[in-house]
Amino acid sequence: MSKPDKWISPVFLCLAMTFFMAGVIQASEPDTTLAFLSSTLDPAVPHDFCGEPVPTRSREVMERFEKEFLLTLWNRPQVILWLKRSRRYLPYIEKMLRKNGLPDDLKYVAVAESALRPHAGSKKGAMGFWQFMRETGRKYGLTINRRLDERRSLSASTRAAIRYFKDLYQEFGSWTLAAAAYNMGEKGLMSEIMEQETYDYYQLYLPLETQRFLFRILSIKAILSDPARFGFRLKEDKYYPPVLSDTVTVKCAGEVPIRIVAHAAHASFKKIKDLNPAIRGHYLARGTHEILVPKGASEGFHKRFRSLMKKYTSARDKRIYIVKKGDSLSAIAARFGVPLAALVIWNRIDLRRPIHPGDRIIVHPDR
């Protein structure tokens, strides 16, 4: 699991509370949160995850819940970001969970894992909305290579997460244990269950991160289900709106610069990359791609794309330089008055590998 947005220092918290929040939320009275804590965290008040009761009458369980709840509630800038992103991403996740007959509470796993950030990554190598490791992501159908990383795609990664959760539930018979397995791996969890001879998550001694994981999810659920009760009253225009887009099918006979797709969509390079975070680098690989473009840009897209590709292809020979003996990339860049970094991008060059006489180098953009 990645750390969502980095923990905010106390000094920054004070500044954020004083300046930023004043324009975003209307703070509740100080005793509102305390009153809520005294009732919501009362052992008699039921809590559940995916319909499975949390044994809050256990003092040990309550202590673990209170710790995560208070830490989560204190990090108010992070909660604000969860809320602001929630209307952009959660409706799609909710729809997909509902379509597949899975509990709605599973959406909070994505919040806990990535804070709803497509590029969230962990030191262990997890990536994307659902923090898939490479091996697990590929097992559940995600393409992960140097050109495409579907862990960053909301639609592709959510479909993979749903398949994974279905398998975990079938194996453990409990959504609580499925969430624990999602965090630490199903083999590791089953090993602990066999050794400790219990299927009760709350009685299992697991890696500390996994012991905290479900309580973090429960805390997120409590706050996001009724944010106003905790003093989070965002005005409607402060939520990040859903991203409106069209889908176009792009067939590439060879590598195609993303900027050509952007021009055909009347959009910037950045806009196409933002809409398609799974795409890595500056080029689409050979093959067929489903690309998101700004809403309305699909009309006439293919005609514009074909025209741009024709110009790009016809100008290709004029853009090529044949490497000669004694040439270096820096010398070639200086000769044609282009940045060395541009040559690297245009030619997908690995600087660790030398160029050789006879190599074909693109030295001019297709403009």
Q: Which SSEs are present, and which pair or pack?
A:
Blueprint: H1 10-20, H2 30-40, E1 48-49, E2 52-53, H3 59-74, H4 76-99, H5 107-114, H6 134-139, H7 154-172, H8 175-184, H9 186-196, H10 208-225, E3 245-252, E4 256-257, H11 258-264, H12 269-275, E5 283-284, E6 287-294, H13 301-314, E7 320-322, H14 329-336, H15 340-347, E8 360-362
Antiparallel strand pairs: 1-2, 3-6, 4-5, 7-8
Question: Can you walk me through this structure?
Answer:
The structure is a single chain. This protein is 49% helix and 8% strand. By secondary structure, the protein is mainly alpha-helical. The chain has 3 domains: 10-238, Orthogonal Bundle (Lysozyme), CATH 1.10.530; 245-314, no CATH class; 319-362, LysM domain (Membrane-bound Lytic Murein Transglycosylase D, Chain A, Roll). Mean pLDDT is 87; it is low at 16-31.
Poorly predicted regions are 16-31
Instruction: Kindly give the count of domains.
Output: 3
Main β-sheet: number of strands, strand sense, barrel status? 2 strands, antiparallel
How far is it from the N-terminal to the C-terminal residue, by CA? 44 Å
Strand order of the largest sheet: 1-2
Helicity level: 40-55%
Average pLDDT reading: 87
Quick take:
This protein is mainly alpha-helical. Helix content is 49%, strand content 8%.
Descriptive keywords:
367 residues; mainly alpha; Lysozyme; 3 domains; 8 strands
